[in-house]
Amino acid sequence: MEKMARVTTALGGNTLTGRTMYCHLDAPANAISVCRDAAQVVVAGRNIFKIYAIEEEQFVEKLNLRVGRKPSLNFSCADVVWHQMDENLLATAATNGVVVTWNLGKPSRNKQDQLFTEHKRTVNKVCFHPTEAYMLLSGSQDGYMKCFDLRKKDSVSTFSGQSESVRDVQFSIRDYFTFAATFENGNVQLWDIRRPDRYERMFTAHNGPVFCCDWHPEDRGWLATGGRDKMVKVWDMNTNRAKEIYCVQSIASVARVKWRPECKHHLATCSMMVDHNIYVWDVRRPYIPSAMFEEHRDVTTGIVWRHLHDPYFLLSGSKDSTLYQHIFKDASQPIERANPEGLCYGLFGDLAFAAKESLVTVDSNRKPYPGDRRHPIFFKRKLDPTEQFESVSSSALSVFETEPDSSSMGWFVDTARRYALAGRSLAELCDHNAKVAKELSRNQVAQTWTMLRIIYCSPGTMPSANLNHSIGKGSTSLPLMNSFSLKDMASGMGSEARLDWSKGENRSENLLLDSSTTLITNDENEETEGSDVPADYLLGDVEGDEDELYLMDHENAHTEEPEYVLPQEAFPLRHEIVDNPSGPDHLQDKADSPHVSGNEAETVSLTPVESFSLISISHTLYESRLPPDFFSALVRDMLRFYAEQGDVQMAVSVLIVLGERIRKEIDEQTQEHWYTSYIDLLQRFRLWNISNQVIKLSTCRAITCLNQASTTLHVNCSNCKRPMSNKGWICDRCRQCASTCAVCHHVVKGLFVWCQGCSHGGHLQHILKWLESSTHCPAGCGHLCEYT
Amino acid sequence: MRLATAANAAYTATLAVTELLGCKQCGGGGGGGGGAREELGIRIPRPLGHGPSRFIPEKEILQVGNEDAQMHTLFADSFAALGRLDNITLVMVFHPQYLESFLKTQHYLLQMDGPLPLHYRHYIGIMAAARHQCSYLVNLHVNDFLHVGGDPKWLNGLENAPQKLQNLGELNKVLAHRPWLITKEHIEQLLKAEEHSWSLAELVHAVVLLTHYHSLASFTFGCGISPEIHCDGGHTFRPPSVSNYCICDITNGNHSMEEMHVIPAGSVSITDSFCEVEALMEKMKQLQECRDEEEASQEEMASRFEIEKRESMFVFSSDDEEVAPARDVSRHFEDTSYGYKDFSRHGMHVPTFRVQDYCWEDHGYSLVNRLYPDVGQLIDEKFHIAYNLTYNTMAMHKDVDTSMLRRAIWNYIHCMFGIRYDDYDYGEINQLLDRSFKVYIKTVVCTPEKATKRMYDSFWRQFKHSEKVHVNLLLIEARMQAELLYALRAITRYMT
Description:
The complex is a heterodimer. Chain A is α+β, with helices and mostly antiparallel strands. Chain A is elongated. Among the domains of chain A are: 339-380 and 390-400, no CATH class; 409-456 and 628-709, no CATH class; 712-787, no CATH class. Chain A is 29% helix and 26% strand. In chain A, helix 5 (443-456) packs across helix 6 (464-493) and helix 15 (629-645) packs antiparallel against helix 16. Chain A has a 4-stranded antiparallel sheet, with no helix packed on it. Chain A has a 4-stranded antiparallel sheet with strand order 4-5-6-7, with no helix packed on it. By secondary structure, chain B is mostly helical. Helix content of chain B is 57%, strand content 3%. In chain B, strands 2-3 form a two-stranded antiparallel sheet. In chain B, strands 4-7 form a two-stranded parallel ribbon. Chain B has a two-stranded antiparallel ribbon with strand order 5-6. Chain B is globular, with a radius of gyration of 23 Å. The termini of chain B are far apart. The chains are: A alpha+beta, B mainly alpha. At the A-B interface, strand 35 of A face strand 1, helix 2, helix 14 and helix 16 of B. Strand 35 of chain A pairs antiparallel with strand 1 of chain B, so a sheet runs across the interface.
């Protein structure tokens, strides 16, 4: 082995030393067990049965117990166990149902001692009594457990589990007479060795077979079980009913479980299939293993701690025909690679986010607002490195507060409700949507809709005045947008800057200008970013328009840099910013504030491309009547832009409205992504109908089939409150008709309408009729029902 | 105000069933399949007059309308899920407990969440059933395939299907006839075929479907399921025949011919067959008692398994020389010559698969459930029910522990596939299963298309039909598990 770490532990005179090492076996191992002195290990499998001495540097084969010429199924071991009192005594469970004991003290080559052929099926497990020298217990596929006295030829008692196969048997370490047995049907039984007629206690531990169990070496009441359902559970058996106190969810069926010596809450597991690693869990932290050994290339079949009182050495055998000694020091610790993070929404939409400090600081160096660019809500951010977690040396808690007046997403809901996406001509749809956007003071969006109309609808039909008007408007809103984007960039860059727009400090103006100039000169804006001093930002509010404005990303500006030297058209139009009646309030309030002027100053140089191109578009439109295809690239970019800004609503709406005209320009995956995001948002706002409409109108296969999944409607019985499985109107359990009409007292099999106040109801027609003449509940409960 | 819809689909469904079957009965006694009634210019499909099964007299089979509440629910569910009450369901309802689990699994495989698109699932079903020339299942699924929007062109043969499905052909072939030959290379070929490659989850879904339909084909032939009358797609696949000739007669090898040179089942006297049951029970009792006394040596046990395995290859009825007639369904398999009989003639060696090293409960289940969640659970339940199903009766005797007999049948089937249980004495098989029974098992499991009424009649003559159907359930589940074990082991090997 390349790992040379050495570990030495003193155990009251008995010292264990060693390193991570392995040796090749000739055949896959099924089980391993160690000798009491921790110096030897026995490996058993279908074609192997050997004893290895564990030396400091290597495993040394000491003895091969498979002797004799003919291969016998008696040697084909499913399990092996080494007696913890007598180091000459071993027992194996054979796949053909035989229990064999071996005496290493025998002088002959064949160490086989006794042969018990009482089980009819494969024996899954053998177990020696921890303190009694001659007592051996076996559990078999035939559903029986047998207790053998090694001085006698036959079993002394047989315990019938009254069910299918026994998968594991374990003597309690403290209670002399007790043993636990686990079964293939998910049960665990506790038996008193003196009473073979009946188990003391039984409980269902897992769903599906329980493959293994292990008594806690110190705490007498604790039993760990592992099952095919991928769970490890720890049961407290001290109480009357076995109580599940811990549960660890693993990623594959749990084949073995072993408590770690000297560590009260640790246990090691390996899995039956698929996963080859050995995990050591702290049961109190069930989501991440505290240590992981990844050496094996095939499933691990046997694990055992090398010494009863040493928590650092673990031995394991595997189907890949290797025997390993793992040293705890060499274990990989997934916890170190994991980034503990916490995220929580407050009642009023505040967002708290906690993470390792190192992560946060790294992030804030690079980008002051990690991630929230895409978020349509503005946050006030307080960064205070506070709380220390148990294991993480330092962590940071950030709270993003939504600004009180901007917290509403009302515009989103309104827009979603009022947009028309289909059913009319394109021009009408665009006009309608533009109007909606305008009424919600989202001028840029409105403009976009108008523009789309111009592009895609025949220009001849449009009154020229209108067109001109819209052009003018278009250009007015665009510089505005850019001025905001600048602000955004500036604030984004100067993380050290304390920007408070509402106060309008001069300092920030300077900063602003500063940063924006750097922006222009440098493609990378990182230079301007300084320390990660906690800063409070109060950014603009979230009124429709501002989102986009704020979210305008500087990349766009960059890409279009070459065109900064622009034709003059932009200049005269710019003035309309102030005139814009629906302009954002705060902007108007501070129209004379240095920021705005500063920004305006910047805008001059930055007055963008968009306005230019738009104007030129409208010109060319008139002159040469370019086909709409000509613009599709532009429209595509526009959609991308909106989506990137977080206004996926716009992207999807346009996509639906334009339909075939633009669909092929955007790859399927992106479309699907947009659709899912928008649908998700809609559903969060409980706009079910609209989300359904969007699903219906979408052309992505993956999206349209959303409507077809899980269309079943599950109904609970109104009597017993249990789900009704077969028919919607009669309950299998309580044999009653669940929904009878309060008017005609017949079963309602179709539409059932009920009052949410008293929960009485019935046939829709009957109720309607009833309510024409009466205001009280037809059931006579006295409730004044309201069916609206 | 709120509205809820009570599910009344099931109710109308049952109505429809009765109507449908009612019409079936009134048309009874008619001649050939698809006889045309010229007066109205409408072709009216006519039943063949067999009932759901050609092997089991119609009166033995439960009539729709006489079922008890549990069966009624099952019928309703089945109809709601499939839109039909097929003959398989009508025969399986002998064992409602199993039927419930079977339908649940099948419904999940075909209609519920899963990695494969719906038309793929039916197409895979067609591929699997066609391997055994089971026109019954093929016809059913051709309908379903078209119904879920499958491309009719694919039905012209596997070469018209997408490359991805074509790649599956090889696995289908090996799995159906020689599952022990599946290696991780087969799996690798499917998973690493660039744009045509399968994902692991899809592959597991496909494997489960394949094995399901292979074994269902066994059931169809083993119980002589009659073609569906109301399966309108079926007509298009029937030859426009005028004689009293049904598709299954052609498909099944011509047993109309066989019937002539066969010793009539009646020639064996009733007393003989009565003794048969008695003798079997006696043997079981003996085995139970003297099990511990006479200890066979290890070598003896091993050789017993080998003998049984080897013999199982030669257990064959003499009439398997029939040349399969060319049929529509044959277009689904490229290589008709590749069948079970080829190697059995050459005495090919089947390697031994130790169930203690890779068993369904521990390994297979874990793998399936990981890659295709919930299905592992469903199949596991189905295996359990099939294996443990018993009414403690044998023919006319009550309160018999049949576990030994069931285990012998199960292990014999696994033995044919080379799967060995270390803890089983294969000598028991020889004691409990007589030759005619072995012939039947062997035929149904390995070459179901050759199963005939004669074989069905000649084993266990005194037993009830429900018990014979029970045997068939054991056969198909054991076969499915055997195929699954080999396929899953290969996938596991690929993954490690």
